[in-house]
Amino acid sequence: MPRCDLLLGAACAAALALPVAAGAAEPAAPAGPGLVEIYKTLHSHPGLSHHEETASTVVAEELRRAGYAVTDHVGVYPDGSHAYGVVGVLKNGPGPTLLIRADMDALPILEETGLPYASHVMTKSPTTGLEVGVMHACGHDIHSTVLIGVARAMAAARGRWHGTLLLVGQPSEETVDGARAMLADHIYERFGRPDMIVGLHDTNGLAAGTAAIAIGEAQAGTTSVDITIRGIGGHGAEPQAGRDPIVLAAQFITQMQTIVSRENDPLEPAVVTVGSIHGGSKRNIIPDEVKLQLTTRYFTDHSRQVILDGLRNMAAGLALSAGLPPDRAPIISINEAESAPPTYNDPKLANRVRAALARSLGPDKVSVSEKVMPSEDVGVFGLEGHQIPLAYFSLGAMDADALARARAAGHELPGPHNSHFAPVPDLTLATGVKAMTDVALTLLGKP
Ligand SMILES: [Zn+2]
Ligand SMILES: [Zn+2]
After folding, report:
1. Cα(95) to centroid of ligand 1, in Å?
2. What are phi and psi of 48, to 5 degrees?
3. How far, in Å, from the CA of 122 to the mean position of ligand 1?
4. 7: three-class secondary structure by DSSP
5. Which ligand is nearest to the CA of 102?
6. I need a labelling partner for 329 at 20 to 30 A (CA). Which of 78, 147, 219, 382 fits?
């Protein structure tokens, strides 16, 4: 059941597509499908990064229905291909411009929640070529649905705010090249440059009905790195005749962990993770190469440099110690397109958002969170050097009792990027819409 008691008046009813009582102070946006229904549709039709066709169509359609001027297919990637970005604009007189961002892409994970609306979508992995499941395992379907709810609520509450709302459905957050693709397509030149940016992400660490926000540093920066460890292939029974890249890759992966533990400043958090390793085709063949895909996390330019220098030095040393000729040295490619700066919550704006959240949900439902190592490309919208202030908050998505039981048993409920991640839709969506709407009404409130 939609929790309309959590929301306010006509704005609530419009957000949840419920009938509005006659004589309500503000006009409702034209009715559309209920938010839970939209969420389940998005959840069961996920699209990987660069392939968010369904989500972008739904978001564009619903923003249009809510009265926004909508442009879709916004965004261009470095290879010239188009992106599925959506921008909805609602002008409401002179005043500040607020950008609210929701991401829309899913992950290459086979869903194992067993939910009636679980995804059964399969596709070919763009990175490995193997058949993979596709799942909204990061809850971007929650974010997109909340955006639609906020669009309806803000349209219905037009009398209570002034300025311009820019609602952004962003593609390709998981590959962290979606925000950049939208900037490359000149969204600020085309739709106006915002004065403030807000966004949210669901979390398994909080019960639905609650939220948390970090003040200052919020999320780590990330740089993706691809490494090809080359060797000299041959018969598995005669390793001495070649140079085994599988053994070299194993050495490299182990040694690489000393970058964080021995080379980086212990006071600067950093992570180096190998998330994918592929090499070989048969037991008795030594392959020519092994391919590694890495993600790196940090909060400072200095740590980033230490990590990248460490990877280069260790790879070069590995080839030297294996006696490989220079033309078989490892190939390291820094994927700048799949990199994002740390997410920095502008303290002044974050404190305003925190106060708005506390008023909206209740002071006991809103906490201040610590910075975390997962990354986001939402900070890209703030431009180099945090030119546009940003505040990004966490939205609780778990059943409170289930969360308490799990913690009493000493573990956490499955979270983002886990095949069992299962936000509770009703309360999470109602809270997300109420929280974000109240944040927007605060930031665009009439003086
Ligand atoms: Zn994610
Ligand atoms: Zn995410």
Report:
1. 34
2. -65, 165
3. 18
4. coil
5. 2
6. 78
Expressed in angstroms and rounded, the spacing between residue 326 Cα and the centre of ligand 1 is 38
- Closest C-alpha among 156, 174, 155 to residue 165: 155
**30 pLDDT higher than 70:** no
Q: For the chain, give the mean pLDDT.
A: 93
- Domain 221-339 sits in CATH 3.30.70.360: yes
pTM of the model as a whole: 0.85
Instruction: Quickly list DSSP for 277-334.
Output: EEE-SSTTEE-SEEEEEEEEEESSHHHHHHHHHHHHHHHHHHHHHTT--GGGS-EEEE
DSSP 63-119: HHHTT-EEEEEEEE-TTS-EEEEEEEEEEESSS-EEEEEEE--BBS----S--TT--
- The residue among 372, 61, 67 whose CA lies nearest residue 203 is 372
For the domain bounded by 4-219+342-443, which CATH number is listed? Answer: 3.40.630.10
| Rounded distance from Cα 210 to ligand 1 centre (Å) | 20
- Listed residue (253, 255, 250, 224) closest to 127, CA to CA: 224
Q: What is the DSSP string of 381-405?
A: GGTTTT-S-EEEEEEEEE-HHHHHH
Tokens 């002008």 correspond to 91
Domain boundaries, the chain: 4-219+342-443, 221-339
Ligand with an atom nearest the CA of residue 135: 1
Neighbours of ion ligand 1 (CB under 5 A): 138
| Active site (catalytic) residues | 103, 174
Ligand with smallest separation from the Cα of 108 = 1
d(CA 158, CA 156): 6
Give residue 307's identity as a one-letter amino acid code.
Answer: I
pLDDT-above-90 percentage for the chain: 89
Burial of 363 (0-12, 13-18, 19+ CB in 10 A): exposed
Mean pLDDT of 118-141: 93
The pLDDT assigned to 32 comes to: 75
Asked whether 162 and 444 are in contact (CB, 8 A), the reply is: yes
CA of 374 to the centre of ligand 1 (A): 8
Where would I find the H helices in 121-186?
Answer: 140-156, 178-184
Q: Which ligand is nearest to the CA of 395?
A: 2
